[in-house]
């Protein structure tokens, strides 16, 4: 079942207080030099493995054509150039559909989808986290099991269903399946469970109904949770969840459209790397700026 | 009985606002998760091409799967290899990297968390591996292997069945430090520091003992969560295989059950048969989840 925060010894969100860091220092009692060196080596080796593709993509994106296709190749770029990036607008101009349309699709779908998802997930998470009613436990058990079935696994039967209801090739296909993902509800419910009941009761005495309590009391208290969802959900919309149900050029999202350019022909190899680098920036930047909030939220992601 | 029924009814009526708040998500969840799964089970007993009505065929789709479909068996083998090799590797990588990072100073920890987590949210950046393993002499692997004199001519990394699956698995591992990893980081931060101090007094001497006697038993909830996420991820490998090895790949050597479902369903429109494959996949995932859960239960308790 669900994590009981008191029992886990962490009734409050984790923060990196100065006290916390002092205590880490005192833990050094059970630390050996050899162990430290080993940890350092492993982290360095795997850190390089994880980072290498990013570095390689960035370097390739600054290489002029002659350097990409030269033998023997050099890893580092000798005459860095921006031409791969400068070329993107002209490649984009050759698309059938004005480029702005793809930008609009991506921004519209990501923003609308993320906002609606957080809204309906918060609505559903609140009663599950704070009230007992017939079916509430079973409901959450089903949510936990369904975490297994990612959109990819159910894509085929979903395709049949959406085709029969005329949703294929509409904005609905881009928006709705991702909106129904159970992960957000799971995370939100876990985080809401740790809000002390006393806070809610104070609201109830004021005569506020559940909805009012949710918006006025609960939501401000679970800011880390919805910020975390904001990042996760935005990123999966942005990376093109649901684009498998789209065929028309004018409904395609930015990554799909740019991906088509990137994979079409050697002549565009450099620009392909430039596009890949540009596309990864929004989700990574969002993560960097909200990392602490996300970790704070994930402290409540456990399943009992 | 009747009494219990009426009291449940009364409870339901009393909590109407809870049900109302659950309603919007429930409608979407039913439509996009539950109904697809149920309809896959139903369609798996039919022959269905999306144009004519489904025709009941009993278990013949399942018999065909097991008895006469070599491609299915290949993709099944690939999926199981991915699941049972990359699954545990990713799971333990998530845990051990989180564990190693946990002791470091705040800033270093933030940086390393970012470096390890970044691949899982960088979308299609993994296509850069198509360059690393490019089949011409300009690709990173080939160029360096030739320069070092290990091979004489370029290796066809992404079309030679000997290498394709390994490469897909490597890339999958690269991308797999996602939500489970963050959950471990947060969970480790949340373990009461005093437990470690008490442990040191009780005679715990090194990291290993600390891990076994203090850390593991307190990470149960995170271990369950990461396992679910990892199982979900490694049974649904598809985009990586399609983008790197092609669709379908040479001799289906890098195809997974998912890409085979796409092949049968979205290309050949044999929806009944594709549904049967999907149902087999669902059961494999549920079974794996059950096994892993009971394994973790033993470790964590």
Give a summary of the structure in a few sentences:
The complex is a heterodimer of chains A (304) and B (301). Chain A is an all-alpha fold and 304 residues long.
Could you describe the 3D structure shown?
The complex is a heterodimer of chains A (304) and B (301). Chain A has 304 residues and is mostly helical. Helices cover 68% and strands 0% of the residues of chain A. The N terminus of chain A is likely disordered. Chain B has 301 residues and is mainly alpha-helical. In chain B, 73% of the residues lie in helices and 1% in strands. Chain B has 15 helices and two strands. A two-stranded antiparallel sheet of chain B has the order 1-2. At the A-B interface, helix 2, helix 3, helix 6, helix 7 and helix 8 of A face helix 1, helix 2, helix 4, helix 5 and helix 6 of B.
How many helices of chain A does DSSP assign? 15
* Unreliable residue stretches of chain A: 1-27
Give the overall shape of chain A, derived from the CA principal axes: globular
- What order do the helices and strands of chain A follow? HHHHHHHHHHHHHHH
Q: Beta fraction of the residues of chain A?
A: under 5%
- Write down the secondary-structure element order of chain B: HHEEHHHHHHHHHHHHH
What labels describe this entry?
heterodimer; A: mainly alpha; 15 helices; globular; B: about 300 residues; mainly alpha; MetI-like fold; two-stranded antiparallel ribbon; 2 strands; about 75% helix; flat
Mind sketching the topology for me?
The complex is a heterodimer of chains A (304) and B (301).
Chain A: H1 5-8, H2 18-26, H3 33-61, H4 65-68, H5 83-93, H6 99-130, H7 136-146, H8 155-164, H9 171-179, H10 182-192, H11 197-205, H12 210-221, H13 223-238, H14 254-262, H15 269-298
Helix pairs in contact in A: 3-15, 5-15, 6-9, 6-10, 6-13, 7-10, 10-13, 11-12, 13-15, 14-15
Chain B: H1 2-14, H2 16-43, E1 46-47, E2 55-56, H3 60-68, H4 70-102, H5 106-121, H6 129-132, H7 140-147, H8 161-174, H9 179-190, H10 193-201, H11 207-218, H12 220-234, H13 239-245, H14 257-267, H15 271-300
Antiparallel strand pairs in B: 1-2
């Amino acid at each position: 079942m669900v994590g009981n925060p008191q029992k886990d010894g962490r009734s409050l969100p984790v923060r990196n207080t100065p006290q916390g860091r002092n205590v880490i220092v005192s833990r050094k009692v059970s630390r050996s030099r050899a162990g430290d060196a080993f940890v350092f080596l492993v982290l360095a080796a795997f850190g390089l493995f994880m980072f290498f593709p990013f570095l390689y993509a960035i370097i390739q994106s600054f290489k002029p054509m002659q350097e990409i296709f030269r033998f023997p190749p050099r890893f580092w770029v000798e005459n860095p150039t921006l031409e791969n990036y400068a070329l993107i607008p002209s490649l984009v101009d050759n698309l059938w559909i004005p480029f702005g349309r793809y930008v609009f699709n991506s921004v519209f779908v990501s923003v609308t989808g993320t906002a609606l998802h957080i809204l309906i997930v918060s609505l559903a998470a609140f009663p599950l986290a704070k009230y007992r009613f017939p079916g509430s436990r079973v409901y959450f058990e089903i949510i936990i099991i369904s975490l297994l079935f990612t959109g990819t696994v159910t894509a085929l039967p979903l395709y049949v269903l959406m085709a029969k209801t005329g949703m294929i090739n509409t904005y609905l296909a881009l928006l709705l399946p991702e909106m129904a993902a159970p992960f957000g509800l799971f995370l939100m419910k876990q985080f809401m469970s740790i809000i002390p009941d006393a806070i809610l009761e104070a609201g109830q005495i004021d005569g506020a109904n559940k909805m009012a309590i949710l918006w006025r009391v609960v939501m401000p208290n679970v800011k880390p949770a919805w910020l975390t969802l904001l990042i996760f959900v935005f990123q999966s919309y942005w990376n093109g969840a649901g684009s498998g149900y789209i065929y028309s050029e004018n409904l395609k999202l930015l990554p799909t459209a740019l991906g088509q350019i990137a994979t079409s022909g050697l002549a565009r190899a450099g620009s392909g790397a430039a596009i890949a680098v540009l596309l990864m920036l929004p989700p990574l930047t969002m993560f960097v700026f909200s990392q602490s909030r996300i970790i704070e939220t994930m402290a409540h992601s456990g399943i009992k | 009985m009747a009494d219990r029924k009426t009291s449940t009814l009364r409870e339901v009526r009393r909590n109407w606002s809870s049900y109302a708040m659950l309603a919007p998500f429930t409608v979407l969840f039913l439509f996009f998760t539950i109904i697809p799964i149920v309809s896959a089970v139903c369609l798996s007993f039919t022959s269905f091409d999306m144009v004519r009505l489904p025709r009941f065929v009993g278990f013949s789709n399942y018999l065909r799967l097991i008895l006469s479909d070599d491609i299915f068996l290949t993709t099944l083998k690939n999926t199981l290899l991915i699941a049972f090799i990359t699954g545990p590797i990713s799971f333990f990588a998530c845990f051990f990297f989180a564990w190693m990072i946990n002791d470091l100073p705040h800033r270093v920890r933030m940086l390393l968390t970012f470096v390890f987590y970044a691949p899982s949210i960088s979308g299609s950046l993994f296509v850069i591996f198509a360059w690393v393993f490019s089949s011409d002499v300009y690709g990173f692997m080939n160029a360096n292997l030739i320069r070092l004199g290990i091979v004489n001519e370029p290796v066809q990394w992404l079309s030679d069945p000997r290498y394709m699956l390994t490469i897909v698995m490597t890339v999958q591992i690269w991308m797999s430090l996602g939500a489970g990893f963050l959950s471990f980081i947060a969970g480790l931060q949340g373990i009461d520091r005093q437990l470690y101090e008490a442990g040191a007094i009780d005679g715990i001497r090194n990291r290993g003992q600390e891990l076994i006697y203090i850390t593991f038993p307190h990470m149960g909830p995170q271990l369950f969560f990461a396992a679910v996420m990892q199982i979900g991820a490694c049974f649904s490998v598809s985009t990586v295989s399609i983008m790197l090895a092609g669709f379908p790949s040479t001799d289906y050597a890098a195809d997974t059950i998912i890409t085979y479902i796409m092949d049968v369903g979205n290309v050949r429109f044999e929806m009944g048969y594709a549904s049967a494959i999907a149902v087999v996949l669902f059961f494999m995932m549920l079974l794996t989840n059950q096994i892993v859960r009971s394994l973790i239960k033993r470790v964590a308790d």
